[in-house]
């Protein structure tokens, strides 16, 4: 069975210090493309869906597509719900079979976030699913969720207490990262990842992957960022390859030819990231 618990994918990556690409897909074509890249490179993969994509496709349709396509690959893959503040969406995705969820209560107080996150962890455990938590909003708006204002950075002991008392499987700290495009190379607080991991061995989720430099990825992965999120890069490749194809083939209205070009571009993008994160050949 190629669909495995997210916990297993994360624990192995964390132990052996490689990064698993966690890529946000937007439809059937992009789902098939990222799975094809993982299969080709023998890499474990986390497929992410934003709440916007879940609502656009419909959770049942999306999950049906996932089950059918993931069932055909031979590498370990898991389905993750990205940034979700809505407990009802979390409950319906867990009940359908998502392998993990990011409960994004970063807009709430840490105490209230903690209280609710404990409930989400208990709910997820009933399905054998994992939970990612965060206490600081990651800068930037991702599919309608988030803010362009940088959130308050919590003290190390507050972050550690959150991880310990909620029992989450993966923690997403703010380290100067942001969703969307960076205007310049971001200045990241890599030491914060080491401070958290050395006090508590929890796999770290690195958000805002698009636009980070290869050496930033490798340093952060070595410090414990086992899950590396990529969303904007897929959107860019998907849209740009479509635009380029139409521009190069004026007057041609052959959807499968357009889809082939888009699929090739998304596979190439996923392949480049998987290789950069060191997870190629890590399938078991
Ligand atoms: P990017 O959109 O910057 O790639 O970030 C992805 C992400 O962190 C999804 O949660």
Broad structural category: alpha/beta
Strand order in the sheet with the most strands: 8-5-4-3-2-1-10-9
The CATH class assignment is Alpha Beta
Q: What count of helical segments does DSSP give? A: 11
Radius of gyration using CA atoms only: 18 Å
Instruction: Please indicate the count of domains.
Output: 1
Structural overview:
It is a single chain. The protein has one domain: TIM Barrel, CATH 3.20.20.70. The strands form two sheets. It has an eight-stranded parallel beta sheet, sandwiched between helices. A two-stranded antiparallel ribbon has the order 6-7. α2 runs parallel beside α4, α2 packs across α11 and α10 packs antiparallel against α11. The chain is an alpha/beta fold and 284 residues long. The chain is built from eleven helices and ten strands.
Characteristic key phrases:
single chain; 284 residues; alpha/beta; TIM Barrel; eight-stranded parallel beta sheet; 11 helices; binds 1,3-dihydroxyacetonephosphate
In short, what is this structure?
The protein is of the alpha/beta class and 284 residues long. Helices cover 50% and strands 15% of the residues. The site of 1,3-dihydroxyacetonephosphate has 15 residues, from strand 3, strand 10 and helix 10.
